[in-house]
Design brief:
Elements: E1 2-12, H1 19-26, H2 29-35, E2 39-45, E3 59-70, E4 73-86, E5 89-95, E6 101-111, E7 130-142, H3 146-191, H4 263-266
Antiparallel strand pairs: 1-7, 2-3, 3-4, 4-5, 5-6, 6-7
Length: 317
């Protein structure tokens, strides 16, 4: 004669554990099986013929437990169990010998400090703050073995939850350390110049740094005038003029280079003296067009003459 037993166990989870870490453990079937202190062997199997249609496509395992029936006497129990993942938990169904049928449901609930609070079920001692793990057990077994099975199951699952919490703490520490190392590596990367000569955006700009194209990463920074430069004169631009690829002209290295030689400055200059690019400059919009300096236009010489206007005399009476 079988007897049905239903009971619920709620465990409050300590602070510092996130919802994702607990769900990751619940959805890891091998880890959930190994956290049970009674399990000594497990391996995946196909769904048995006695499986219901909705459980046939679930994930099945064959598990071997070591049971202590009396002090100094223990035995082995083999059974099949199916696992079904839920959005906020896990469902399991155990088909054990002697008509033992256990349906177990694990549910992760509760709210974190940054989440809106939700109403909780009354009468079960559900914590109002923080996360909690709920286990609902629906068990059918022989009347004579109900008390022993329930006591053994509660003790084993209590140890399972303790190991799960400790595993979550370890996982959270690993995630925290990984993020901290990544953050420190990013800070160290930007605090020191890289091998390519790029300066850190967090450090003071250094216009002498050049990238692999010979350009300065700080085009708006002006270098400090050297002792050979006259005070008050326009100094060099932060980078020399370099023609586009394909142009045979080499960049000028003349120390007397000024803004009037830079086509980027010429495009913004309203002065007609700087309205023409330097010789050999190639237009980026039309690479086949090469600018050539305009030759001075000589006006024809004409004879000049002076015209004398008639003067008027002023008489005084």
């Amino acid at each position: 004669m079988s007897m049905r037993t239903v009971f619920t166990t709620i465990t409050a989870l300590p602070t510092g554990i996130t919802r994702e870490t607990v769900l990751e453990t619940l959805h890891n079937h091998f880890e959930m099986i190994d956290l049970n202190p009674l399990v000594i062997e497990r391996h995946p199997v196909k769904a048995p013929r006695k499986a219901s249609p909705e459980e046939f496509h679930s994930i099945w395992y064959h598990v071997v437990d070591k049971i202590n029936y009396f002090p100094g006497y223990h035995g082995r129990t083999e059974f099949d169990v199916c696992f079904h993942d839920l959005k906020n938990g896990l469902q399991t169904h155990v088909y054990a010998p002697l008509g033992l049928d256990i349906r177990d449901k694990w549910t992760l609930g509760g709210t974190l400090p940054h989440e809106p609070k939700e109403p909780v079920e009354i009468g079960l001692g559900v914590p109002k703050d923080g996360l909690w793990l709920r286990e609902d057990v629906d068990m059918k077994c022989n009347v004579m073995a109900t008390s022993f099975v329930k006591k053994t199951l509660k003790k084993a699952h209590g140890t399972l939850v303790e190991r799960l919490v400790e595993k979550a703490h370890i996982r959270e520490s690993e995630i925290h350390n990984s993020r901290l190392e990544e953050h420190n590596s990013i800070l160290s990367y930007y605090s020191e110049p890289s091998s390519q000569g790029l300066a850190s955006p967090m450090s003071s700009p250094n216009p002498t740094h050049k990238d692999r194209f010979g350009m300065s990463p700080y085009p708006n920074q002006w270098p400090t005038p050297g002792p050979d430069e006259q005070r008050g004169s326009i100094g060099k631009p932060p980078y020399p003029y370099s023609p586009p690829p394909g142009n045979s002209q080499k960049p000028s290295t003349d120390s007397r280079y000024s803004l009037s030689d830079d086509p980027r400055f010429l495009q913004r200059s309203p002065d007609l003296r700087y309205s023409q690019p330097p010789p050999g400059y190639q237009d980026s919009r039309n690479p086949h067009r090469m600018y050539q300096p305009h030759q001075p236009v000589e006006l024809p010489q004409t004879e000049s003459w002076i015209a004398e206007l008639p003067s008027s005399e002023v008489r005084h009476g």
